Amino acid sequence: MATTSSVSKRAMVVAIVMIIASACSASTTSSSTASAPSSIQTSSEAPVKVVTDPLGGGRYRFGPFGDPSASFTISAKGPNGWTGYPDWAMDGPSPLRADAPNGIGLAFFTTDGLFSDPCHWDWKGTGQADVGDVKVGPSVNDMVAALRENTYYTSTAAKPVIIDGHSGKELTLQLPDGSMAHCDKDDPSDEGGHAFVFSGPGLYAQGPSNRWHVYLLDVHGTRLIATVLSYAKTPRSDVRTAENVVKTLHVEE
């Protein structure tokens, strides 16, 4: 995925069986006593891995997200052969990755702002898409309302969603067709510009008519955003794979 900023292994806890042998007179007996059930922990889950390129299947760790004092990470499936970006994103297999006309991508992030005009986002004149000109309140509903009000893209009505026990909303943004050559640039050497919807993470439209399926979750007061990026011609199997990655993510606290 083109962006502006482009293992720990879980130990298996083994139950230790204590064998106590005692000898009495001329006869010998033995007994074994297992440790208390509360101290025995077993797990069939595979270790969560550090994000790599390419991904090799299994679960990978992304984050941390949120304020340092209350940050969290997530583990998510990394489809075999997909491209991983440490801490926050993944794309479909090379060479297409998330590019038009039928690529697929996925990003996890937090933000408190949007751009009123995603094509002309450089309102500070710094060439950095780090601060949006639309400040958004802290709740999931605040972000949904701000996205729905923007007219640069069309958006669907938001629907409730619960992922890993955390409630939120999901909606789809359809970004416009056509060249982005006239959009603001974050790199003067780029032939074309970029369209940024959200401020902060560095995620921009990967091509014309990019479609963003946005999931917004309230994780103990932090608004976690997961976005699946696709196109009308992206194979439905790839879209389902990416959506399943989001729906099966696990918040590590």
Secondary-structure blueprint of this entry?
Elements: E1 17-24, E2 27-34, E3 49-50, E4 59-65, E5 72-77, E6 83-85, E7 89-91, E8 105-109, E9 113-114, E10 134-135, H1 140-149, E11 154-155, E12 159-163, E13 166-174, E14 211-219, E15 222-230, H2 236-247, E16 250-252
How does this model look, in words?
By secondary structure, the protein is mainly beta. The protein has helices at residues 140-149, 236-247; strands spanning 17-24, 27-34, 49-50, 59-65, 72-77, 83-85, 89-91, 105-109, 113-114, 134-135, 154-155, 159-163, 166-174, 211-219, 222-230, 250-252. It has one domain (48-252). Strands 6, 7, 8, 11, 12, 13, 14 and 15 form an eight-stranded antiparallel β-sheet that branches. The protein has a four-stranded mixed β-sheet with strand order 3-4-5-16, with helices on one face. It has a two-stranded antiparallel sheet with strand order 1-2. Strand 6 and strand 7 form a beta hairpin. The protein is globular. The chain starts with 16 loop residues before the first strand and ends with a strand.
Highlighted features:
253 residues; mainly beta; eight-stranded antiparallel beta sheet; four-stranded mixed beta sheet
Q: Residue share in helices?
A: under 10%
Strand residue content: 25-35%
Counted by DSSP, the helix tally is 2
The largest sheet is: 8 strands, antiparallel
Distance between the termini: 27 Å
Number of domains: 1
Mean pLDDT: 86
Q: Tell me the number of strands.
A: 16
Return the structural class: mainly beta
Give me a quick take on this structure.
This protein is mainly beta and 253 residues long. 9% of the residues lie in helices and 33% in strands.
